[in-house]
Design a protein that fits this description.
The structure holds two protein chains of two kinds.
Chain A (H helix, E strand, L loop, with lengths): L1 H17 L5 H9 L5 H10 L17 H14 L1 H20 L2 H12 L4 E4 L15 E5 L2 E12 L6 E7 L9 E7 L8 E4 L12 E12 L3 E2 L5 H37 L1 E2 L2 E2 L4 H30 L4 H27 L13 H9 L9 H10 L1 H10 L4 H7 L22 H4 L1 H11 L2 H23 L9 H25 L4 H15 L3
Parallel strand pairs in A: 1-4
Antiparallel strand pairs in A: 2-3, 3-7, 4-5, 5-8, 6-7, 9-10
Helix pairs in contact in A: 1-4, 4-5, 4-7, 5-6, 5-7, 7-8, 7-9, 7-10, 8-9, 8-13, 8-17, 8-18, 9-11, 9-17, 11-17, 12-16, 15-16, 15-17, 16-17, 16-18, 17-18
Chain B lengths: L9 H16 L19 H15 L7 H4 L3 H14 L1
The chains are: A alpha+beta, B mainly alpha.
The complex binds flavin-adenine dinucleotide.
């Protein structure tokens, strides 16, 4: 299994190192000019990356979702704009893998493998995170549907050949009032679709962030993805999957930040000594590495949960999407605090790569559900999670799969995805895992895992006691959600370490970072 | 409440749901009508899924939480549940 994952990853690494399209100076110039990185995307097409976006059952090479996440992370580590631009096809197609009929999925798979760009249009000018507010409408007509309205702030809306569109099909709206369509631009009548102009953005400046306007756009009945009226359910499930890919891109940005800051500290000589010799610089670099390990642990388990713990994915993916981009933004901010005054952000260091990264990385915390939206999704499930914790409910087979990166992923079962989770096996198994660390691990870890178990118990007790009202979520619930995320990430770190118990100091740093952030001592 | 697991009837389910919804909303059960959509009370659709999930735990059966989207009033949901439990 490892071989099939590592192979494309190693080949992709070689491409990123050697292809002139990925030359940092070239990519920096494109960003300054706000131009799309077309050559880099073409190089990824030629490499065959799109086939990794398509499940094996639909003709592609996607089996375990951890593998595609690793590929996207590697691209993001080089250039986040390219990852966001190319990876969008993966995000745009997921609804069809979940709910499309097999023939439609096979057709889409073939198009993607041949290089078609797929976009996903949910957001509207007046309705950002609020999917149920959408006003773009589809009305039935003989043999199909007519779509009217606008989608705006959409990645690749202009470049895409195919667009997944969420449309209101019941004038009254509601959770069964929307339907998903896969539009094939080439099959629309001239004038039915007008692209909206590119929106200048703070980060990922070269990306095609634009929109579409549909006017009397006729599509056949075969354009519908899944049952009519089930668009919200399908897209929420699709977001559970795609959030793990956003998280992978965020990790790639974190890798890049740490790489750049480490090189900068080694190369910048002040008063006769490299910055890397200073204790405060060493400390911030070590902290950043621990933060990234913590984020990686949460991300690794969440993405493997698509195959291994699909029933818990609604919670695990929300936690990862809330946690990882926030950790990465935070580590970038702390590196900037210490190294910024010496010129880390300036144009003089690696074509201004760090300054650009600082802008680009923030975007990941906004799309596919912001950190707050994901935290809110977690808070909605507090009561049930607290009850599951009390009962110790867990899925041991699923847990074994998601915490062992060498375990072969089980087959993807869209029917097992659920909008709510029965529990969180990673946390339920923490007390047992802690016992194993205490029994077999080095003494330096024992006290830390005990504190983690205690903190996790407290978090769940507070969750159970919280008097939540829909629409009136108090700020304290968001703070509690953040502590839940830290418990989860740290517990994931412990579980992963138990599978391969080497480098205890690294786990120690991860645990210290999580416990410090929770404010426990 | 626990006698529900034995023989759920539309009446017992309705009573349990009224209590559950009232508890979530912080209102008196007497103020919850069973024939209006739950969204009337400001319960948003995604939040409503957690109520369906509690029902699942309470009955100790496997339910698709979106059942509450297809049957958005307490009356409709109770009836649908009884039908679902019978067929299971
Ligand atoms: C670069 C980029 C690419 C994008 N690509 C796409 C794309 O391909 N397809 C697409 O459909 N959309 C895309 N979007 C749109 C993106 O999904 C929206 O910007 C996002 O949904 C937020 O919407 P909004 O900006 O209108 O903010 P709002 O939804 O109005 O939110 C405003 C603030 O309230 C917070 N908030 C909102 N709801 C809640 C809640 N329930 N609980 C707590 N806090 C909440 C938000 O976090 C935010 O801070 C893209 C956006 C950007 C910037």
């Amino acid at each position: 299994m490892t071989a099939t994952v590592a192979d494309p990853l190693a080949r992709l690494g070689a491409l990123l190192d050697r292809s002139p399209a990925f030359d940092p100076a070239t990519l920096a110039a494109l960003d300054r000019a706000e131009r799309f990185p077309a050559d880099a995307c073409a190089a990824l097409d030629a490499f065959g990356l799109p086939a990794h976006y398509v499940p094996v059952e639909h003709g592609g090479r996607l089996h375990g979702f951890g593998a595609v996440a690793a590929l996207l992370r590697a691209v993001a580590r080089r250039d986040l704009t390219v990852a966001v631009a190319h990876g969008k096809t993966y995000l745009g197609a997921v609804a069809t893998w979940i709910a499309g009929d097999p023939a439609a999925a096979a057709r889409l798979g073939a198009r993607i493998a041949a290089g078609a760009v797929v976009s996903c249009a949910l957001t509207e000018r007046a309705h950002g995170s609020d999917l149920l507010g959408g006003e773009l409408t589809a009305r039935p007509r003989a043999g199909g549907w007519t779509l009217d309205g606008e989608k705006w702030l959409i990645n690749n809306a202009t470049r895409a050949e195919l667009v997944t569109v969420l449309a209101r099909t019941d004038p009254g709206g509601g959770p069964r009032g929307f339907t998903l369509f896969l539009l094939d631009k080439a099959r629309l009548a001239p004038g039915a679709l007008t692209p909206a102009p590119k929106v200048p953005t703070y980060g990922v400046r070269g990306a095609d962030i634009s929109g579409i306007v549909l006017r009397g756009a006729h599509v056949g009945a075969d354009a519908v993805i899944g049952p009519v009226g089930h668009g919200i359910e399908i897209i929420l499930k699709a977001l559970h999957l795609t959030r793990t890919a956003c998280v992978a891109m965020s990790l790639g940005a974190g890798d890049h930040a740490l790489e750049l800051a480490t090189a900068f500290a080694a190369e910048t000589v002040v008063a006769g000594r490299p910055l890397a010799d200073r204790p405060e610089v060493r400390r911030v670099l070590a902290d950043a590495a621990a933060a990234l390990d913590l984020a990686e642990a949460a991300a690794t388990v969440a993405v493997r949960a698509i195959n291994g713990l699909p029933r818990e994915l609604s919670v695990l993916s929300a936690v990862a999407k809330a946690f990882v981009p926030a950790q990465v933004d935070d580590l970038i901010a702390r590196l900037t605090d210490v190294l910024g005054p010496y010129g880390l952000l300036g144009p003089g260091f690696r074509h201004g790569a760090f300054g650009r990264l600082e802008r680009d990385a923030r975007i990941v915390g906004i799309f596919d559900g912001s950190s707050l939206v994901n935290r809110n999704a977690l808070i909605d499930q507090f009561r049930r999670l607290a009850r599951a914790w009390r009962k110790g409910a867990r899925d041991d087979a699923g847990l074994a799969e998601v915490t062992d990166p060498d375990a072969p992923p089980s087959a993807f079962r869209p029917a097992a995805l659920s909008l709510v989770a029965g529990g969180n096996s990673v946390l339920a198994a923490l007390p047992d895992a802690a016992r194993r660390v205490r029994a077999t691990g080095p003494a330096e870890l024992a006290g830390l895992v005990d504190r983690l178990v205690a903190a996790t118990g407290e978090v769940h007790a507070e969750m159970a006691a919280f008097d939540l009202r829909p629409h009136a979520v108090p700020p304290a619930a968001f703070e509690l959600a953040e502590r839940y995320e830290l418990c989860f990430a740290a517990a994931a770190g412990v579980q992963l370490w138990l599978r391969r118990p080497v480098d205890a100091p690294r786990l120690r740093a991860l645990l210290v970072r999580a416990l410090d952030a929770m404010g426990t001592r | 409440m626990s006698d529900l697991t034995a023989v759920p009837t539309p009446e017992s389910l309705r009573a349990w749901l009224v209590d559950c919804v009232a508890d979530h909303l912080g209102r008196a059960p007497a103020g919850i009508a069973t024939d209006v959509p739950l969204t009337t009370y400001g319960l948003d659709s995604v939040y409503a899924l957690s109520i369906a999930a509690e029902l699942e735990d309470h009955l100790d059966v496997s339910l698709d939480p979106t059942l509450i989207w297809d049957h958005p009033t307490i009356d409709a949901l109770s009836a649908a549940l009884v039908a679902e439990l019978r067929s299971a």
